[in-house]
Amino acid sequence: MSKNQNTFIKKQKAELKRRKQKEKFEKKLERKAQPKDGSLDNMIAYVDEFGNISDTPPAPPVEKKTNSNQSNQNRVKTNQNYRNHE
Predict the structure, then answer these.
(1) 59 by DSSP, 3-state: which?
(2) How far is it, in rounded angstroms, from Cα 27 to Cα 33?
(3) What segments bear the compositional bias annotation Polar residues (predicted)?
(4) What is the tens place of the pLDDT at every residue in 44-74?
C-alpha cells in the first residue's frame, strides 16, 4: 500500500508557502535598498497650452508689442468727442 496523499500535499503546500515568503522578503529588501527621492521638483508636472503633461516648465508667453502712439491718439480722440457732446 502506498502512503497517504495528504502528507505529500501538505509538504508541497508548506514548501510553496516558504518559497513565497522568501520571495516577498527579498522584494521588501530590494524596495528598502532603493533610494527614495520625494523632493518637490520630482513631483511637479506642467501642462502646456494643448493639455499635454511634461516635466519641463513651459516657455513664458510672448507679448505682442503695440504702438503706444496709436493708442494715445485713440484716447485723445475719444476724449475730444466726449467733450464736444457736453
Answers:
(1) coil
(2) 10
(3) 67-86
(4) 888 888 888 888 888 877 777 766 555 555 6
What 3-state DSSP class applies to 74?
A: helix
| C-alpha closest to that of 57 among 65, 70, 49, 48 | 48
From CA 30, how far away is CA 26, in angstroms rounded?
Answer: 6
Confidence bin at 38 (pLDDT 50/70/90)? confident
CA proximity to 49, closest of 40, 34, 62: 62
Measured CA to CA, the distance from residue 10 to residue 76 in angstroms comes to: 98
Q: Where are the alpha helices (DSSP H) in the chain?
A: 5-33, 40-43, 68-85
The closest of 36, 86, 16 to 8, measured between CA atoms, is 16
